[in-house]
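Data availability (excerpt). The following record was deposited with the supplementary files.
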Amino acid sequence: MTTSLDGAIPATGRDAGVPWHYGDPLVEQRRAARYAGVVDRGHRDVVTVSGPDRLPWLHSITSQHFAALADGASVESLVLSPHGHVEQHWQATELDGTVWIDTEPGAAADVLGYLQKMIFMKRVEPRDVSADWSVVSLIGPQTVAVLIAAGLPVPEQVGRAIALPDGGFVRRMSWPSDDAADLLVPADRAAATVATLAAAGAEPAGSWAYEALRVEARRPRLGFETDHRTIPHEVGWINRAVHLDKGCYRGQETVARVQNLGRPPRRLVLLHLAGESDELPEAGTPVELAGRAVGFVGTAVHHHELGPVALAVIKRSLPDDAALLVDGYPVAVDSEA
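Predicted structure:
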């Protein structure tokens, strides 16, 4: 579950239950981008999968190569529909005979339902443990220094995790900043973990800061930069959450076809929004060209350097200089890769 909201402005919507900011969100972003920030992400759901068949089983029913996943390895993975559309997005970590899956707030029921439906005769046991565990994220270039100052283990590279003495683990991440770490800790230790990292030099930062850095990094989020038609190629999940050299899994035909033929129908872009209004567009707001919808806005946020920006999914055929509008205001596509 979540840590204490004392002294914080609470987030709303999908991120309700964790701090949105602590009073000065742009300063929080700046310090997190330049030094280190600690973010309560305890609203994320957590599912575990144990049992001797867990790795080959997950390998067969998801987009990721789980079969030979080493102890301490962490990967992103997707569940696709039979037609290759994205249904679920996981961060999965194999540690001490258990695969730990953390996913979007409120998504555990869908994850668990899918896993239970696919068990058949396999020796696996999926469980929703969201009430018992919390995710705390450390972001920024001083991530390693803060972990050391806090007396916590430091995985040697991105995509690796190390167990914590009281349960859970620390895993190195490459986003939303260039260096970051997620800590999975017992829920009753989450507030203490945030305090420990803050005392070691990390600035307490809310979900606003985390989302701003994620948008800057052009990293998609399920349910914001995805809809019922999204395929992995459109939002940059190929080679991150989809392994291209593995056997059959649901939705693989679409992945292989687009990979071989190229040119998915849409692409993920960063939009610079007009500054005429302080109100940001909601996720799902149409992106329009000459009065016609040509895409949709995902996450929109005020960034400490870029100003009002948003991720959006638009038709691939649109040039970067197309005269696009959102809520009647002009927007500019940032073509930087």
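Summary of structural features: The mean pLDDT is 95.
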